[in-house]
Amino acid sequence: MHKFRNGTRAYITGNVIIRQKDGEVRSLCGSKVKIISGRKNFCLCDIGREKPIFIPTKNLKAA
Length: 63
Hints:
The protein is 0% helix and 46% strand. It is mostly beta strands. The strands form two sheets. Strands 6-5-4-1-7 form a five-stranded antiparallel beta sheet, with no helix packed on it.
């Protein structure tokens, strides 16, 4: 059984950094995301930007 189900919310606890379209680097640590698809080692998450991203499950905590 997977830890995260589709459609649930989670907090990012690990160090996750993205580069935005304008070139700015942004840290997502502590932000809340919506799980689109949960797997064993990673989850596809909607962070509220233009594209969903893959985040390892060790960097997520259930909300």
